[in-house]
Design a protein that fits this description.
By secondary structure, the chain is α/β, with parallel strands linked by helices. It is built from 16 helices and nine strands. It starts with 8 loop residues before the first helix and ends in an 11-residue tail after the last helix. It binds iron/sulfur cluster (2 copies).
Length: 407
């Protein structure tokens, strides 16, 4: 794989909507108009049962969309499941959804959220940071109260524990007890786990637990371990778990300068052709992309051209924006940077064009300066050929951007 350096400030500014000055990190979803024709057309929706929860959902759902009108339109178009987290946009994403839900029948949407728990560095591990086992379960119990207040609801449908990168945390009893209590108290109907690294181990553990109802996992055509993820998903579905897929479009762009977009429909079809995936939260951030994602329900067949499109990155030697979260880089950084989290944040900002989510991700790991900004030399050898230092420098700038530019 070729690396694709974007080192100069000039290059950085050339990236249009992600330049720091002025409209810096403004996402396209906030201002793009809704296409009239598409809004008037009735759309075919495919529904699948979310495992033993009994919920029947369209196979296309919605992740962290920050433009309120886009969220409203998505619900009006038949999307039912909305995913958020109390950490998104410093709790403002839940507030935004609370406004959207006002006046809507409670059974017309399914809302999933999670507590904002600090990442714990996984010392001596080849794994990135995750929440570890040291979080006080009382934090989980308290956190849902804030979420319910902000969402203006009495209960959520799914309360997730995330992000998890290993089996032990998935099966950690104190966490399961806290989630059990929330279920018993009627604060949540179902409980789930979120994973975007070491996914197969987490999914298998969730399936074995007999406790978790749903798993939300990264799953896409670019994952080097996709067959292992596929097998784990099959096992989870057979055990009755609901399966929700995220990172379905593998970082959205093949290149850092965003000149080559991944065929979004093809990528989403690739995921949803697997019937063990019950719904997905694709990376749409504007009306056009939402329509594109919804349109895949007309026909899930991958055309020969779409299949070829999914191989474009390999053909052109482009590394894309999706970090495999494989952890190979971790032991290589003398400063102990959580490179997978940095790269995930990079993907949200530059691929998904979700600067707020990018910053939330960074802050969940660190609020201090990122060591890469003062590090003179980087010998990190990424399995995808990422130029880790230049990407880290690009994303580190997001911590300096004033809130009002992160729309
Ligand atoms: S930056 Fe590269 S080596 Fe590190 S986790 Fe991502 S893909 Fe793996
Ligand atoms: S630039 Fe330096 S601190 Fe950053 S990842 Fe590379 S070696 Fe680590």
């Amino acid at each position: 794989m070729k690396s694709d350096p974007l080192t100069s400030r000039r290059d950085f500014l050339r990236m249009g909507t992600t330049a720091l000055a002025g409209a810096a990190f403004i996402s396209s979803g906030a201002c793009s108009p809704q296409p009239k024709e598409a809004s008037q057309k009735a759309r075919k929706l495919i529904y699948r049962a979310l495992g033993r929860t009994g919920l029947r959902l369209p196979i296309v759902s919605m992740g962290s969309v920050y433009a309120i009108n886009l969220v409203r339109t998505a619900l009006d178009k038949g999307i039912v499941y909305i995913h958020t987290s109390s950490g998104y946009s410093e709790r403002n994403h839940e507030r935004l959804l609370g406004e959207v839900f006002l006046g809507r029948p409670r059974d017309s949407f399914v809302i999933a959220t999670s507590p904002d728990l600090p990442y714990t560095p996984m010392k001596g591990s080849d794994r990135s940071s995750d929440i570890g086992k040291d979080v006080d379960p009382a934090q989980i119990l308290e956190s849902i109260e804030g979420s319910l207040r902000r969402l203006r609801l009495d209960y959520v449908d799914i309360y997730y524990l995330g992000s998890i990168g290993n089996r032990e945390v998935t099966l950690h009893e104190p966490y399961m007890k806290a989630y059990e209590k929330l279920k018993k108290d009627g604060k949540t109907r179902f409980v789930g786990v979120v994973t975007h690294e070491n996914e197969p181990a987490v999914i298998r553990a969730a399936a074995e637990s007999g406790f978790w109802d749903v798993v939300l996992t990264a799953y896409n055509f670019r994952q080097s371990h996709r067959e292992e993820v596929r097998a784990a998903i099959r096992r989870a579905a057979q055990a009755g778990l609901g399966v929700v897929a995220m990172k379905t479009q593998a970082g959205v762009y093949w290149d850092r300068t965003r000149t080559k977009k991944i065929n979004m429909k093809a990528a989403l079809k690739w995921v949803l052709r697997d019937k063990n995936v019950h719904t997905s939260i694709p990376a749409f951030s504007n009306y056009k992309e939402m329509e594109e994602d919804l349109s895949i329900m007309e026909d899930l067949t991958l055309t020969p051209k779409e299949k070829r499109d999914l191989e474009l990155g390999d053909e052109l030697g482009l590394s894309g924006c999706y970090c495999q979260q494989c952890g190979r880089c971790l032991a290589q950084c003398p400063a102990g940077m959580d490179i997978p989290t940095l790269m995930r944040s990079y993907m949200y900002a530059f691929g998904h064009q979700q600067p707020k989510k990018a910053r939330d991700t960074l802050r969940s790991w660190t609020s201090t300066e990122i060591a890469c900004t003062t590090c003179g030399k980087c010998d990190v050898d990424c399995s995808l050929g990422f130029d880790v230092r230049s990407r880290a420098l690009d994303i580190a700038r997001i911590l300096e951007v004033p809130e009002e530019f992160l729309e």
